[in-house]
Amino acid sequence: MRALLVTNPAATTTTAKVREVLVRALSTDLKVDVAETTHRGHARELGRQAAVDGVDVVVTLGGDGTVNETVDGLLADGPGAQVPTLAVVPGGSTNVFSRALGRSRDPVEATAEILDSLRAGRTRRVSLGTASALVDAGTDIAWGPGWTPPRWFVFAAGLGFDAEVIRQVEEQRARGRRSSGRLYVHAGTRTFLLGHDRRHPSMTLRVPGEPAREGLFLCLVSNVNPWTYLGDRAIAPSPEAGFENGLAAFAMGRLGPIAMLRHLRTTMAERPDVRGRGVHRLHDLAELEITSTRPLEWQLDGDHLGPATGLRVRSVPAALEVVV
């Protein structure tokens, strides 16, 4: 069985020693080629080439961004039997997709689990999502103004608050700061208290066949539950989300700091169930659209992708075979 290991040396917890251990372990059962990413978008190129070359299994070692790019490459020509199976070894700071698949947080243990599953033939097809953003002529995007080509995501998409937090964290990481829960908390608090979205919400959420939901400052789109983690604590605004379902959306309108803290605590509870005035929860969605009256940041799977004034999101059932 041919395998490609896509490793991101810049990921938070990925080291050369871990990579060497993984290669030795994988080589006991697989014919392994190793490719190390060198620039943004490289994992996408590697994933697409792996599909063209007929590789059987693609294993990622990196964070959620590495997984996202690899999947976007694997599915460049759409789902199908020719697409390699994906296996995910956690190597980032949060590893949402890996944890959603039930993988151990330790990369060596996760590799052993993957090998056991491959021997036993334990795989499943999971639903994913695609997203297109509406960018304007002033945005430095290669494809120019208008709706961008659909891009795959595995666990989350967002426009506005969450993407702005991610943008700030990425700026801090570029200055040498290590990704951590504290960094996200600081960025989230700053964005909520000092940003304009909470006081002057600009977003509208539209779902086919339903009235538009206007005046939103936050809209999180989830493909899995939980939406993300803060250290060991799951943050679950959409507990109905899952690989067998359509997409879930969690949106909020104008609210104050006390209400925001109360809702945040509820998303981290053992049985999360956020409700209240201005809270919108939808699930099992085939598609949705978010628009904004002014440019906001957008993100997929925790990667900041720039400013946009709209996001079109669709669910794609049984899109990719993964090792479980």
TrEMBL record:
Domain DAGKc stretches: 1-132
Known cofactor(s): Mg(2+)
Top-level taxon of the source organism: Bacteria
Segments passing through the bilayer: none
UniProt cross-references to InterPro entries, sorted A to Z: ATP-NAD_kinase_N (IPR017438), Diacylglycerol_kinase_cat_dom (IPR001206), Lipid_Phosphate_FormReg (IPR050187), NAD/diacylglycerol_kinase_sf (IPR016064)
Pfam families referenced in this protein's UniProt entry, alphabetically: DAGK_cat (PF00781)
Gene Ontology CC terms, in alphabetical order: plasma membrane
GO molecular function: ATP-dependent diacylglycerol kinase activity
Stretches of the chain forming a coiled coil according to its record: none
Family annotation (SUPFAM superfamilies): NAD kinase/diacylglycerol kinase-like
Keywords: Kinase, Transferase
PANTHER family: LIPID KINASE YEGS (PTHR12358:SF106), SPHINGOSINE KINASE (PTHR12358)
Family: Belongs to the diacylglycerol/lipid kinase family.
The name this protein goes by in its record: Diacylglycerol kinase family enzyme
